[in-house]
Amino acid sequence: MHSNQTYLVNGDEPFFWLGDTAWTLFQRLSIHHAKTYLMNRKEKGFNVIQSILINVAHKNDPVSHQQIENEDLLKTIAPENRQYWDRVVELVDFAAEHGMYFALLPVWGKVAKKGFLHARNVEAYADFLAETFKDKPNILWLLGGDTRGDLDPELWDVFGQKLKASMPDMLVGYHPFGRTSSSYWFHDKDWLDFNMFQSGHRRYDQPALQSWDDAYAQEPWYGEDNWQYVLHDLAQTPTKPVIDGEPSYEQIPQGLHDSSEPYWQAHHVRRYAYWSVLSGAFGHTYGHNAIFQFNGSGFGPEYGVNATWAEALHASGGSQMQYLKELMLEIRFQECEQMQSILYPEEVEEPKEDKVLVFGRDQHLVAYTYSGKSFSLHKPDATMNYKAYWIDPVNGSRSYTGLYSLNEAVSFQPPPKDTDFTDWVLLLVELD
């Protein structure tokens, strides 16, 4: 953990979490295909893969001991299933060889919701996980799994305490239900090292879709403004790092359940990434509809998926995440902070898609405009001049645009664009 308690470090180096949601990797891909997937992600800058160890069986799925239905969970860790766990370990080791981490979910939330994980077997399962993975240096743990922490807080608390006691050097988080954060239930728990929220897959105009999904309306509704979760969680005491662990996936229906709705596109996933990171998140997790379920591997398709996982490896949004990571490492993001105060004039209303985020420190300033609108920056105490560059988040290209001082308000007008959307990143670098 960085000294500011907001970012992660790996030894002495800052660690920017660039995650991918590969929930069903261990259940649905062969070793060969899994390694192909991992190498593709490594080449694109991803360094954390979020995957489930035990899930509930889905309709039309082939039989799998790690997708349980009406069974005691402990049967999945019995000696006759050792071949599965050996495959998991092989892939964990392969990832380690290539500088990648796994954020492992011991179970998906439905396993607990259906009563397969409970107070009578949770400690035995935690002991098995410690025995299997305690010597693996590239493991992080995520409890929950698209589930509310208040449905069984004692269970998750026992699980978190047990994992932290057995593997104190491994980070532990909690993947919550859509439109909620782990901070809502577990922020004060010693085992929770960072907060994760799921901004989810809904548009601004989709606050309520189905009764089962909207049973808890007491939480604030932020719509697509995932940056608001970051500010909410960073305001809690004690300070803990925060990340969006599941924003809208590329090529999934808006609202998730109705494939007649428009699908989220690459420019949407870029927006979620830049909005959260430039608000102070310690990284970001990307997702693609075809990859999280590994469509095309012989399992029943869900959520209107329109591509195979092998095709989705090359999707535009996933390929563009690396440019954000590279930029954050360049500006030494661990020394930066949100700098909305230099946006001029101050925002009077919540601008939604027109939101401009400003982030940085004296030597580097970064601003992101999703809609391509112009904006002004004013830093009255500025004593240095800045070289200014427009960065296209679609391809990472840079275009020098001039030398500026911010001691008076300066208006920045993004250039015309012939790519798939109008978002731009402005980078200001202190003149040597």
TrEMBL record:
UniProt domain Apiosidase-like catalytic: residue ranges: 3-333
Taxonomic path: Bacteria, Bacillati, Bacillota, Bacilli, Bacillales
Record InterPro entries: Apiosidase-like_cat_dom, Collagen-bd_put, GH
UniProt source species: Alkalicoccobacillus gibsonii
PANTHER family noted in UniProt: ENDOGLUCANASE, LMO1036 PROTEIN
Domain Putative collagen-binding: 350-428
Name this protein carries in UniProt: DUF4038 domain-containing protein
Alphabetical list of Pfam families matching this protein: Apiosidase, Collagen_bind_2
